[in-house]
Amino acid sequence: MKRQVFDCQPGCPVESTLQIISGKWKSVILYHLLQEKVCHFGSLQRQLVNCSRRMLALQLKKLEQDQIIEKITYQDQPFKTEYRLTLQGQTLKPVILAMAVWGEKYNRLQKNK
Amino acid sequence: MKRQVFDCQPGCPVESTLQIISGKWKSVILYHLLQEKVCHFGSLQRQLVNCSRRMLALQLKKLEQDQIIEKITYQDQPFKTEYRLTLQGQTLKPVILAMAVWGEKYNRLQKNK
C-alpha cells in the first residue's frame, strides 16, 4: 500500500496524517486501542456493533501495514489474536483525542439544531 | 450535504470530525486559514500549488456549507472575496495542529527509510 509524503508546502503534513487515519472505522479502532491498550478481535467486533467482520479485518490489516498497530497471535488453545498500538501508533494519541473532543461538541450542536 | 452524528458508542465522535475535515486539500485550507486568519481565493490558490481552481472552489464551498468557514464578498472594484474561519471552525485548531505535528514526524520517518 503506497503511502505518500505530503510536504510540498506548509499545511501538507496534515494530509500525511489524514491518509493514515482516514477510512471508515479506523479512527474508532484507534480510539479503543488507546483506551484499552490491548484488544482481541472479538472484543473489537463486539464494541464496533455496526462494523462488519470483513471491514474490521480489512482496517486492522491496513493499520498493521502502516505500522500503526501490531498483531500478536497466541498458538495455545483456544487460538487467540491480540492487537495493540506500536510506538508510532501511540504518538497518534493527541490527534485522536482532539478529534474525539471536537466530535462530541459537534454532535451536541447538531442534535440541538 | 447530509451530515451524520456518529455517537453510537465510544470513539464514534472521532468519525464525526473526520467527515468534516476529510477530503483532498480541506485540512490544508484549514491550516492556512488558522495561520493567516483571512485568505483571498487568489492567495489560497497561489499557496496550494497542486490544487486546481475547481477543486479549491469545491472544498471551500463544502467547508462553508458545514459552517466551518465563512465567505465575505466586497462589491467595490476590484471585486474581492475573502474567507475566514467561523467560531466553530476556530475550535478545530487543536485537531489541525496535532495532525500537522504528527504528519511532520511521519514525513521525516518516511524519508529516512
UniProtKB/TrEMBL annotation, chains A, B:
<keyword id="KW-0238">DNA-binding</keyword>
<dbReference type="InterPro" id="IPR036388">
    <property type="entry name" value="WH-like_DNA-bd_sf"/>
</dbReference>
<dbReference type="InterPro" id="IPR036390">
    <property type="entry name" value="WH_DNA-bd_sf"/>
</dbReference>
<keyword id="KW-0804">Transcription</keyword>
<protein>
    <submittedName>
        <fullName>Transcriptional regulator</fullName>
    </submittedName>
</protein>
<feature type="domain" description="HTH hxlR-type">
    <location>
        <begin position="12"/>
        <end position="111"/>
    </location>
</feature>
<dbReference type="Pfam" id="PF01638">
    <property type="entry name" value="HxlR"/>
</dbReference>
<keyword id="KW-0805">Transcription regulation</keyword>
<dbReference type="InterPro" id="IPR002577">
    <property type="entry name" value="HTH_HxlR"/>
</dbReference>
<dbReference type="GO" id="GO:0003677">
    <property type="term" value="F:DNA binding"/>
</dbReference>
